[in-house]
Amino acid sequence: MNWQAISFDWNQVRAFLATVEEGSLSAAARALGQAQPTLSRQVSALEQDLGVTLFERGPRSMTLTDAGVELVDHVRLMGEAAVLLSLAASGQSQSIEGHVSITATDMMATYLLPTALRQLREAAPNIVVELIASNDVRDLTKREADIAIRHARPEQPDLIAKLIGNASAHLYASKSYLTAAGNPASTEELSTLTFIGMPPDGRYLAMMQALGLELSAEQFKIRTASGTAVIELVRRGMGIGFLPRQAADLFPELVPVLTDRISLPIPIWLVTHRELHTSRRIRVVYDLLNVTLAEML
Of 7, 60, 188, 229, whose CB neighbour count within 10 A is largest? Predict the structure, then answer.
């Protein structure tokens, strides 16, 4: 840890975040129970300590500068981590209990979520988590789950969604497969190799074409929508598959193929319904997933 690089204090950061979230210095001062001049001085001190201008100040408004926009997501993570720290320090997390259901794709549930859920167990041991590992999109407005981890922004107005970050998917194959079939040096050489995956919705080949891959349906000798099945089949030398780097890196027998030419960003959205504002147990789980998954990405 480079302690000398930390050149601000939490009160200043909190003042900045409250101003962003509440929309004005006066509203932020009311939310924090402070006088507006005090809060304004804290924001100005943060700007001075960081050496950047965070707000363009108008007569009736404050607009984030480009530097402010770049910092605000990091500051939100700090705020959410501070809430979790306060809960843990005060013992309140021990009193938070109940059932929270989380839905995610089978690959996300298998390879990424366990780290977050382990931390949740430590922070709030009385929360019971139901993990729904499914590639089908559950309807949160119908209470089919409390929290969802999705790869597309939801359109329903009653849902709260936050883009945590992007995973990245690449082509992977096992060392044994590449030894037998040859390691391709160009996208053209992929046309003779065997692939795993291609769900039956018809969009997969079009997506591959958009990435510059001219693949045929006949190359997909095993077809499945299951991400965990794809990764196991690729590990066993059955062919090449698109896999998230965060999952593929767990298996030393997997080798990336043409990563300098082929990469697919996978947005990670954390979604819940508006009960987030009234349910403390859902809020705790949501905030912890936000912090933990953002760190992993």
Answer: 229
